[in-house]
Amino acid sequence: MKGYVFHGPGQSSWDDVPDPVVKEPTDVVVRVDCVTICGTDLHILKGDVPEVLPGTVLGHEAVGTVVEAGPDVRTVRPGDRVLVSCITACGRCPYCRRAMYGQCRGGGGWILGHLIDGTQAEYVRVPFADLSVHPLPETLADQDAVLLADIFPTAYEVGVLNGRVRPGDTVAVVGAGPIGLAAIATAGLFSPERVIAVDPAAARREAARRLGADAVADPAETPEELAADLTDGLGADVVIEAVGVPDAFELCTRMVRPGGFVANVGVHGAPATLHLEDLWIKNVTITTGLVDTHSTPALLRMAAAGRLPTSALVTHTFPLEGMEEAYDVFGRAAQTGALKVALGAQPPKDLAVPTA
After folding, report:
1. Which end of the chain has fewer CB atoms at under 10 Å, N or C?
2. Residue 172: enclosing H or E segment and its boundaries?
3. Any idea which fold 152-287 has?
4. Does residue 333 contact residue 141 with C-beta atoms inside 8 Å?
5. Closest C-alpha to 146, from 310, 349, 312, 333
6. What keywords would UniProt list here (predicted)?
């Protein structure tokens, strides 16, 4: 089969790779019908995630069809259409028993496209299938469903829930890429008073407005002053960092009010300065996190009911074999306007246009 292989920082290609097989009785093998590219994949290609070894197939998000299941798999069977979660969960370790699947110590956590071969291929082996794949309703389109593998649960859990967004809050989201836009959309579930989006790209600021931002700013325009102006000088109750660079994190700490929350979602490859000389007196809570995907079933139900604006985030589609072009387009988002790319996506069966 073919897969998108990491060969070292700055080096990757669509190559022939061995077909995956069931290795453990809890495994499934999934034919990949739709896959997407994550900002974390770009961090891997830059060398920011040294645990990823050369020769690894990248990717940790997919929609597909089960083609083989180990004898201990109980929740899905061959032929089932499923969402492959970005997080794999053994279900037995102390962290999994607390629904902290991202910290699984039983062989799971973030392993796809990280510690084992991932989803950017024609087929993928998924360990611990009963907790790591989710059956999908036929009414949910591939390119909508695939966004629930990572960006929506990540934005919701690590951004909105960790940030403790409450009704009436002022929420600032620094970075209006896919994760930031998903954070804006899911923050809206809690009826904040206002949402401020910060991004240097005009197209992404406009996308943020479409998804619910009430005010937008370029980071060069001192958005901390905008947040203060809108809140009687206090700043935002919750600031979500969705970029993963030091300047963005440090901006978040300047935008938050006393007693507020900074929820870091971005994947950082370099140190950021923590200005405790300013923050120690402000009662600020700073959270970090890897998504646990405990919210995925609820988000799937909301998406199937049309309550999440998933389709608005997919700006480019490609065939699966167009992986190298898709990486180029996604990696040059400032020039191409790409938000999320979907490869191999098919429409839901019951939404097919009837022929005369």
Report:
1. C
2. strand 170-174
3. Rossmann fold (3.40.50)
4. no
5. 310
6. Metal-binding, Oxidoreductase, Zinc
